[in-house]
Structure formats: C-alpha cells, structure tokens
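Let's sit down with a protein and look at its sequence and fold side by side. Go ahead whenever you are ready, and we will take it from there.
>
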Amino acid sequence: MPIMPIRLRRGNIVMDLDALVDSEAMTSVFPFDLGIQFGLDWNSQFLTFSLGGALSGAAKGVMLHGTVGNYPSAPLAFAWSQTYNSRLILGQLNFFE
C-alpha cells in the first residue's frame, strides 16, 4: 500500500505524518486520536455522517491544510472517525483534485 508523507496544519498546530493513499476510498479519513492532538472537539463539530466498511461508525467533517512535497498548501476535507484503530487515509474526495 502506498504511504506518503504529508504535513497537516490547523491553526498553530503542525504535524508531519505518513498517510495511506487510497485511490479507491471516496473520503479522506482522520483518526480520532489525531483530531484530539490537533485540538478538535468532537461535540463542537456540526457536520455528522456515517462511514462504511471497516471504519463503520460515526464521523464528523473537519478541514485542515495539507502540504505534500513542494506543492502549495491546500485545504483538505476529512471524515474525522470516532475509531481509534483507523489510519490517516487520503481518499478521492478533495485530495486527488
């Protein structure tokens, strides 16, 4: 599986992470513990939806800025999963655009 380094930023918090690039996943997924590290509050996120498959369960929509290599930073939409055992996944929606 292809793993790619990505720098994510939310406000003053910046993290260099490794993400799974999944061209078959419709949505990019942000693990619950990373959201906590970025200072996100589950109860204050208003966009709620369900994830399917192995990550089945509740998710909240969140936006962060991502930078890959020398490309300019861009806003990225993620499904913030309430699951601790998920990975950072870069899916079709928003990332491949």
Summary: The mean pLDDT is 84. The chain has one domain: 1-22+46-90+93-97. The first helix runs from residue 32 to 37.
